[in-house]
Amino acid sequence: MLDLVDEANDLGEEDKGNIIQFVTDLKDINCKIESLLRQKARINWIKLGDSNTKFYHSSITRRRILNQIKGVEVDGVWKEDIEVVRTFARSLFEKRFSKLAHFKVRLGNVDFQALMEEENARVTARISKEEIREAVWQCEGLKSPNRDGFNFNFIKGNWETINEDIQQAIQSFEDTGNIPKGCNCSFIVLVPKIKDPTYLEEYELAYLKSRL
To answer: Does the reported pTM lie above 0.85?
Structure first.
């Protein structure tokens, strides 16, 4: 009704304020309904598991087959024995990532730029509560590392309750330089660079994060 009166330009200041309040309340209700539906979906996900389509599972299976290492060519001979492939892969990457004894960098004549005292103080200063909150709010809200994980919408919604714990964890890292094992796990996998690779050099290393 107020909309019709507004179209005729007959609304007073009080009625205009009521419209703004109604629109704000409607947006809040829609957000709450959307949040409730997401939580119900997550509950069903936990209870019933995924109801992914046959196409999804067939795509995953096909990708797994394509990325599977069936064997490698070692000194011109094709090897499929798991232990042989494992040993050869380990020696190859140990050699690739080992330090070269004869390789030395001399930096005596390099003129490095130095930070000013103010810049150094700003870089080495403790991370503030505002910076932590800003970093959290810049993260995608709906992503979760696994079914039991808490996404950033949960963290944002309960920030007043858990922000002290998060700040203590970050301050502990600043003081000790250590991150608890499992906080940011990752797996190393070999991904084919080309179709049907035969040499280990034709694979590239990839790091997959399991949880944050």
So the answer is: no
Structure tokens at 107: 């930096």
Q: What is the pLDDT of residue 24?
A: 81
Stated length of the chain: 212
d(CA 195, CA 212): 32
Dump the DSSP string for 61-128: HHHHHHH----EEETTEEE--HHHHHHHHHHHHHHHHSPPTT-----TT-------HHHHHHHHSPPP
For residues 206 and 188, the answer to whether their CB atoms sit within 8 Å is: yes
How much helix, strand and coil, in percent to the nearest 5, is found in the chain?
Answer: 55, 10, 35
168: its two tokens: 């203590």
- Rounded to the nearest 10°, the torsion over CA 6, 8, 12, 13 is 50
Beta carbons within 10 angstroms of residue 30's beta carbon: 10
What are the angstrom distances between the C-alpha of 135 and each of 117, 127, 203?
26, 11, 35
pLDDT of residue 122 exceeding 70, the answer is yes
